[in-house]
Amino acid sequence: MDADSLGPEVLIRLETSDDHQGVRDLHLAAFPDDESVAALVDALRAASAPSAPMSFVATIGHQVVGHVLLSASRLDAPRRIVDVLVLGPLGVLPGFQNRGIGTRLIEHALAAADAQGVPLVFLEGSPDYYGKRGFGRADEVGFRSPSLRIPAPAFQVARLSAYEPWMTGTLVYSEPFWALDCVGLRDPEPATAGSSQHVVTSPLE
Questions:
Q1: Where are the alpha helices (DSSP H) in 19-70?
Q2: What range defines the domain where residue 149 resides?
Q3: Given a cut of 60, is residue 20 above it in pLDDT?
Q4: Which CATH number is 156's domain given?
Q5: Residues 67 and 105 sit within 8 Å (Cβ to Cβ)
Q6: In this structure, is residue 162 part of a structural domain?
């Protein structure tokens, strides 16, 4: 997909291998208490999947300031297995938040998925944030979460042009999400209360 300009200085484009270190540094800064988010990006790039991930960066000059990843998952629908995508991780460098970069990355990612005929994009994240950006509660439109540890309001879906009403059922995450324990919320350890939350899409403007 052609690069998409965000005003005079920010550019959204496909990620290249030269961006990998910058993307990793970005997620370590955006999620300072959870190194598994950066590790998840690396794992999803390398994983065997029905389709290659789509990974986009927002740059200013030569600096990567935002990143979003779409990776392949499956929907176990009554009629057949449906190939779908999961959005996440999404991150923006702390110094560049509240400038609309996260919003534009989401818009770009959804447009790319739609152009490839993907019917559904799922995520875990803030319903207040993503509900204004094309997503809605998945459980209210016929979808089942891959884990009981995902709060119902956080399990969200965007239905794209190729979606058909029979496409309902259970989302099946790809293996890296489980291997890195990046699914839902864990009960906190007594000494580390509040530190075990796994959210791979941060609420960013």
A1: 20-30, 36-46
A2: 4-183
A3: yes
A4: 3.40.630.30
A5: yes
A6: yes
* Within a domain: 196: no
With the CA atoms of 132, 205, 88 and 143 taken in that order, what torsion angle do they form, in degrees rounded to the nearest 10?
-10
How far is Cα 66 from Cα 60, in angstroms, rounded to an integer? Answer: 9
- Domain count of the chain? 1
Element (H, E) at 81: strand 81-92
**Residue 72 to residue 75: CA distance in whole angstroms:** 10
At 28-56, the pLDDT tens digits run: 999 998 899 999 999 999 998 888 899 99
pTM confidence score: 0.89
C-alpha 128, offset from chain centre: 16
Within-domain flag for 61? yes
* Residue 106 β-bridge partners: none
34 domain residue, yes or no: yes
Q: Could you tell me the two tokens for 99?
A: 């400038």
Distances (CA, A) of 63 to 47, 109, 122, 160: 26, 20, 28, 31
| Per-residue tokens: 195 | 């530190």
